[in-house]
């Protein structure tokens, strides 16, 4: 999400009406207590992608979360989302950049307290859901900001951070990301960081990691771990997707796997909602229905101008390739979202598609939110 924002400006006009059958008719209506279904995006955002990138990266402009973005997020039924903040890649001091982001996001959420709630534990997600607000989970997509001092974990924990991804696509001092051929596992310092994450009750996120660091960290952690946004390598053999062995180990640790709405769901073509369903169903076969959910790696508002968006996407892909952080599957002719599953209705449309595939309302509720909440309960408490 945040790592992909630098060059995207505007995009596709493609709306769809709220699905009227299946899960929405059964479970999207309020329950006996008047509550909406719980929907948690394990990696996503709510900013208005149609705004210039400079606006969406600027705390002075509310990170691009304008009135439209907030309205769409609320209308989507979103209960909470894991928002990437801090250093991901590029120039600048990772620690200073990340400290500034933590401060800026805390201030923004406080200003928007009528709509947003900072999530420090699973109870805050329930509170946001109950009060009709949206919970914001602050998370990292790279642990480079730890420098050589694992005690920094505690600093960020006190600032409200609750999810820490160990690596991005490249290498760092903890180990190798998914695009590093050496596939170096968890380093001694990486083990210190994992231990500190466990001690401070933060979620260890293994998205973007190389296979060996993923296996090492899953074994080293004393708490359940997550892969907030990924796909299944068995369906689409791309480095950003996880093998069955990795998926199974996360589930065996009591963890959570979120499937993304990204180009890596298919090989050499634009993926769609059917591809997403295939990855979700495969993950359920490998992990069990109690360990699978969604981490869209996208925002909620749909995109308005396809031609402008495609120009921005072409530049984004060029820049990411030049920086050495691009992954196979990122192409200027394949958009990093699902064109038939976007906008404020996307979560309910997904639920309806799952229902039509024969998945029960209780399983769909788990996929849409309660599986993540279970892991959050076990780690953040």
From TrEMBL:
One of its GO terms (molecular function) is metallodipeptidase activity. The keyword GTP-binding does not apply. The keyword Endoplasmic reticulum does not apply. Keywords: Signal. InterPro entries: Metal_Hydrolase, Pept_M19, TAT_signal. GO terms for biological process: proteolysis. Residues 1-27 form the signal peptide. This is Peptidase M19. The lineage of its organism: Bacteria, Pseudomonadati, Pseudomonadota, Betaproteobacteria, Burkholderiales.
